[in-house]
Fold each of these.
Amino acid sequence: MVIYLSGELGAGKTTLVRGLLRALGVRARVKSPTYTLVEPYVVSKLYLYHFDFYRFSRSDEWAEAGFRDYFNRDAVCLVEWPEKAGGQLPAPDLRIVMNVNESSRSITVDADTEAGQDCLARLTP
Ligand SMILES: Nc1ncnc2c1ncn2[C@@H]1O[C@H](COP(=O)(O)OP(=O)(O)OP(=O)(O)O)[C@@H](O)[C@H]1O
Ligand SMILES: [Mg+2]
């Protein structure tokens, strides 16, 4: 599963991932991957990789960094700043966009694949 998280600096992308990991039972510190680029988590048989590509400046840096193997069928990849990774980043199952306005916040979730739709169907009553 590949989940893109978009939104300006400080929109709440890392906070959302932290909440998701806490809900899955992860007790370890959930750090922003701004400097490490990726933070891995294992929950039962599930591998979750939290990426932040904000620091990428060239579109081929993602491929050079060797992250392709992380995007496999046993993994959930949560990606902050996917737009910085260039066109070779695998397409998302879910696209989450967070917006901060003067007095309110909003979030949009779109499913691009059947797996993504299945995920959304489980969320909505
Ligand atoms: N829904 C929310 N309401 C109020 N404050 C929030 C909310 N979500 C996040 N914050 C606060 O905003 C700050 C930035 O959040 P966060 O680090 O999650 O942003 P980000 O989108 O990951 O930013 P970056 O692009 O720099 O990685 C934090 O101090 C966090 O506590
Ligand atoms: Mg962040």
Amino acid sequence: MVDNTDCLLEVQGLKKYFKVGKKKMLRAVDDVSFYIRKGETLGVVGESGCGKTTCGRTCLGIYDKTGGQVTYRGEDVHGMDKERRRRFTEQAQIIFQDPYASLDPKMKIQEIVAEGIRAHKMAEDEADIKKRVEGLLSTVGLDPAYGSRYVHEFSGGQRQRIGIARALAVEPEFIVCDEPISALDVSIQAQIVNLLKRLQKEKELTYMFIAHDLSMVKHISDRVMVMYLGKVMEITTADQLYDHPAHPYTQALLSAIPIPDPRVEAGKVRIRMEGEIPSPVDPPEGCRFQNRCPYAEKKCREETPVLEKIGEGHFAACHRCG
Ligand SMILES: Nc1ncnc2c1ncn2[C@@H]1O[C@H](COP(=O)(O)OP(=O)(O)OP(=O)(O)O)[C@@H](O)[C@H]1O
Ligand SMILES: [Mg+2]
């Protein structure tokens, strides 16, 4: 699938299963392949529980894998020795889904942001740490004097800025942004997206940007990967995905976003999904989306479609798309 050398992260047939009960397996990520080029943003979307967080965390080696491979700059993420692993945690960071739960309420902001600087011995002395933390706080648009305060004194948007400052502290090149805006008001969401975009330009960052609705993802992503029940349904450029979505699941997700322009709104294909997402412990036979897809036919219930090229840089896993 990958024909370029500017690839930072490459994922091949990745599987992450969780054991549930005595015998059953929950297939959170089930045979997923994609790549992220240096400097780009890959958006990852899909409904709650489809495996986005698990995929991001497994790519960073936070979780062991069940199968497949993740390589970062050509190196196996799950096969790194201790020293290489330490350097990798400098290069690759994560901004967590929930800014309320991911920041320690007992620590001052300056200590939260300084943690990585200390762990990776990136500063010369205490004065240097203080200077770096102040610089990071102002980079993310917070008053450097806020360092002596505690998390509960900040709003959701400010907390997410603290989370971003913490991730930036070790000067990473790749950041998994796990729904960094979902817990925020719409007006604040745009501010955080703009901040991430500015930082990406200034620091040449590469992002994996996880979200469960498609509207904000369009503004930040170069390409978008759509996941459903642990599988990739479609990957293509952000523009192509919004203008010519191929997979019925992508079309259904897009149908859920209101379009401000009434002409576009009138011409849009609307797809309604029936029913609930099935359990990843016991997913449907054939295509995972078949029981909710308005176009499903016999083949969809029997054969699992593979992710196939359907156009330039456009891949979909659907029997109707080939
Ligand atoms: N540590 C775990 N142990 C067992 N099951 C897990 C674990 N983490 C996630 N899962 C399950 O794996 C599936 C995928 O979860 P994941 O958190 O990756 O989804 P998600 O796409 O990030 O959802 P959301 O949009 O709600 O954050 C879910 O069914 C979830 O219950
Ligand atoms: Mg998640």
Amino acid sequence: MAENPLALIVGANRGIGLGVVREFLAKGWDVVATARAPDAATDLQALSALNPGRVDIRALNMADGAGIDGFAASLAGRTFDAVLVNAGVAGPSHRSANAATVEETGELMFVNAIGPIRLGRLLLKNLRSGTGVLGYTSSVMGSVALNAGGHELYRASKAALNSLSRGLFAEMRGRNLTLLTLHPGWVRTDMGGSGAPVRVEESARGLVDVMIRSAGGRKHAFLDYQGKDIAW
Ligand SMILES: NC(=O)c1ccc[n+]([C@@H]2O[C@H](COP(=O)([O-])OP(=O)(O)OC[C@H]3O[C@@H](n4cnc5c(N)ncnc54)[C@H](OP(=O)(O)O)[C@@H]3O)[C@@H](O)[C@H]2O)c1
């Protein structure tokens, strides 16, 4: 790792993303953190006030392709040791292919799979050669091997992210980078619900440790927040 390592966390306004920002800061890293509405990102603003000059809060909506391209262009010349594309949505509450519309399916797939790959591909040149790590917050629900049914639209969006990430890794040969497709655990957030067993702090600490430990491995792996392999 570099002397003053720098991380980019996409979707850092709340939940797991905010926890990951906290954890990188606690480890002495500087952070670029994105929120859809930075002016309303009060928790991120508080972290920035507590850590002067170390948290750069940027606007990014992962449902906006041109916005993703512009955001990546705005980072020209910056080198990241770790990037975690964490933003994600659960999809329509009916959760069913039989009730789904083109619009809601398009939004779910774009935010959870297409947008993250588009952004990651644009940022490959910003990752530190040799030790740079690109991470995606996926889910065990994206595993085809472990699919026991239910939540079929969300599962499909994360399976698409997993497949696209493998394709991106194939493009990355020769760049000496590491790509991680990560399961954060079932975490107590707005998405995970109050009954989830894993606390945000526990998941975030695990995800950050896994990213740091994997630096230099130059592999593509599907790992949980404790570093265990998950079947694709
Ligand atoms: N919680 C779990 O148990 C669990 C399990 C497996 C995987 N995951 C994955 O972990 C990631 C984080 O989930 P979470 O539990 O922390 O969920 P959360 O509390 O609902 O937070 C979701 C985050 O994604 C951001 N986001 C949503 N749509 C966005 C968009 N169009 N553009 C930019 N940002 C957007 C949100 O920003 P706003 O605040 O602006 O809405 C928020 O920061 C997701 O990818 C999720 O699929 C979660």
